[in-house]
Amino acid sequence: MIEMKNITKTFLKGGRTINAVDGLCWQAAPGTFSVVYGKSGSGKSTLLMILGGMMTPTEGQLMVQGRDLYAMSRACRNTFRKESVGFIFQKFLLLPYFTVYENIALPLAMKKLEGAHERILAIARDLDLGNRLDHYPGELSVGQQQRVAMARALVKEPDIILADEPTGNLDRENGDVIVGRLLAAAAAGKTVIAVTHDEHLLGSAHHKLCIVDGKGTCVK
After folding, report:
1. Is residue 148 part of a domain?
2. d(Cα 117, Cα 102) in Å, to the nearest integer?
3. N or C: which end of the chain has fewer CB within 10 A?
4. What is the CATH number of the domain that holds 88?
């Protein structure tokens, strides 16, 4: 369970105080796919960074699995993020001189897991990348690059999956592949949260949170 208690993130810009996230109270449970949506600059990406343990809120508590994430030491928070969170970035952030196989394998590099190779092959097949494992990101379509980014996030089997505009750069067919995989992860008991402008994605969500000027409203 992820629970946000009066989460606020304040920035100073040009002598002005800006509440990118403003007193947000919300929760997301395992086995659900939640979508956060709103206009550019509304605070969606800031919220996702806070949820991923990458940006300390100015006020409030972020409770994850019963623990206050930002009351942890930095080392413990980093360990939590590495082991429990899979982040799908909007710009993919694939390493250009690594093959598809090597990009997917990155989260497992320090784990020395038995069966890691088989796990990489399985997630690649699941996302229709089995015949692209020796290719480089520059040799792939945008849709294939997004699927590699998703495979990299999912290969370590995280409890929490955070996706930043996962369908924003894709056509409908590739977007549907990504949505289907996010729903499958939720069905497997993961907590899945995506931020988006894509109204098509809203129709697949179990829960929706609309962000306007940093404030959130749950929408049915």
Report:
1. no
2. 11
3. C
4. 3.40.50.300
Per-residue H/E/C for 54-111: CCCCCEEEEEECCEEHHHCCHHHHHHHHHHHEEEECCCCCCCCCCCHHHHHHHHHCCC
What is the predicted pLDDT for the residue at 68? 93
CB-based contact 29:17 (threshold 8 Å): no
pLDDT of residue 116: 84
What share of the chain has pLDDT > 70, as a percent? 97
Write down the pLDDT at residue 220.
57
Q: Structural domain tally of the chain? A: 1
pTM of the model: 0.90
In the sheet with 160-164, reading across from the earlier edge strand, the strands are: 85-88, 160-164, 191-196, 32-37, 207-212, 215-219
pLDDT band at 182 (very low <50, low <70, confident <90, very high): very high
